[in-house]
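User: Can you recover a sequence for this backbone? Please restate the input before giving your answer.

Assistant: Of course. Working from this structure:
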C-alpha cells in the first residue's frame, strides 16, 4: 500500500514494466472520464498544490512542468504544477542538466523499450488489443479491414525492425562508452570522423529513425480512421493511447534526428551517456546508454 502513490513510498518497488502500466502520464490520462479520478494520487496532489501559497518541488518536477507547458503552449493555467508568480531555485548549478534532460531531444534504451513495448510486448500491448477489437468486424467493414491489414502486414513487422535497430544502436554506444571509460561522452564536431560510424552506428541510427517514422505514420493513420467511427468510452481511450504513441514517436524522432551525425556548424547529437546506479524508488539498476542534444 502507499499513502501518496509514489515509488519512494512503496516498501517493495514493482518492476519497471508493472510501474509503466499503473503510473500516471499526461498523454494517457483520461482525467475526468477515469473512474478513479476522485481517488487519484496525482490529482489529489495537484489539488493540494493549487490551494497552497508556496509549493516546494525538485528540479525534475519543475522541468517536467516546463516541458508540458511548452508542448501545450500553456503559460497561464495549471499543467504539472499550478502557474507561479515567483520562482526561486536552490542548487541552480544542477538545473541546466535537468532542464536539458526534460526539454532537449533524447533517445534512450529505456525510452525506446517502453515506447515499442507499449505497442507490443509478448503478445500484449496496443496493437494486439486493436487486432482483437477488429477481429470480429473487419470482414464486414472495409475501413476496419484496412486497419487490420495495416496493423498485421505493416506495423508488426516494422516494430520488429525497430527493436532490432535499437538493439544494435545501443549495443554499439555501450561498447563505445565502455572503451572510453567515461560515463558521459561529449560528442564534438570531430566525432563525425570516429570509426564507430563505419562499424554500424550510422546505419543503426538511420534504420531506427526510419522505423520510428514509419510506425508514427501507420499509427497516425489508424488513429485518423478511428476518429470517424462511433465514439464510445473504450474507443476514446484507444484513440487517446494511439495519439499518445504518435507524440512519443515524434519525440523519439526529435531525439534521434534529423541531423544525427555531427557536422560542423549544425546542431546534432551532442553527447552519449551511460546511466547506472540507483534507479527510481531506490532500486539499483542499469539504465543503458542514451543520446541527447
Amino acid at each position: 500500500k502507499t499513502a501518496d502513490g509514489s515509488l519512494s513510498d512503496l516498501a517493495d518497488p514493482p518492476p519497471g514494466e508493472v510501474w509503466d502500466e499503473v503510473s500516471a502520464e499526461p498523454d494517457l490520462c483520461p482525467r475526468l472520464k477515469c473512474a478513479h479520478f476522485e481517488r487519484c494520487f496525482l490529482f489529489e496532489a495537484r489539488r493540494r498544490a493549487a490551494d497552497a501559497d508556496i509549493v516546494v518541488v525538485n528540479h525534475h518536477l519543475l522541468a517536467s512542468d516546463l516541458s508540458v507547458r511548452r508542448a501545450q503552449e500553456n503559460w497561464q493555467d495549471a499543467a504539472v504544477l499550478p502557474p507561479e508568480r515567483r520562482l526561486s531555485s536552490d542548487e541552480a548549478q544542477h538545473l541546466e542538466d535537468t532542464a536539458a534532460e526534460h526539454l532537449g531531444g533524447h533517445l534512450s534504451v529505456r525510452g525506446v523499450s517502453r515506447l515499442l513495448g507499449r505497442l507490443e510486448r509478448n503478445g500484449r500491448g496496443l496493437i494486439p488489443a486493436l487486432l482483437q477489437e477488429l477481429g470480429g468486424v473487419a470482414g464486414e467493414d472495409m475501413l476496419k479491414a484496412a486497419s487490420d491489414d495495416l496493423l498485421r502486414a505493416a506495423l508488426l513487422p516494422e516494430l520488429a525492425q525497430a527493436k532490432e535497430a535499437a538493439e544494435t544502436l545501443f549495443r554499439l554506444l555501450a561498447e563505445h562508452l565502455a572503451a572510453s571509460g567515461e560515463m558521459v561522452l561529449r560528442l564534438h564536431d570531430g566525432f563525425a570522423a570516429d570509426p564507430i560510424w563505419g562499424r554500424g552506428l550510422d546505419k543503426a541510427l538511420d534504420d531506427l529513425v526510419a522505423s520510428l517514422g514509419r510506425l508514427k505514420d501507420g499509427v497516425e493513420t489508424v488513429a485518423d480512421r478511428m476518429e470517424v467511427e462511433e465514439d464510445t468510452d473504450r474507443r476514446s481511450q484507444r484513440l487517446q493511447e494511439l495519439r499518445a504513441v504518435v507524440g512519443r514517436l515524434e519525440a523519439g524522432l526529435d531525439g534521434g534526428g534529423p541531423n544525427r551525425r555531427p557536422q560542423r556548424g549544425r546542431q546534432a547529437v551532442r553527447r552519449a551517456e551511460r546511466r547506472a546506479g540507483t534507479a527510481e524508488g531506490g532500486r539499483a539498476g542499469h539504465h543503458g546508454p542514451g543520446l541527447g542534444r
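That completes the design. The radius of gyration is 21 Å.
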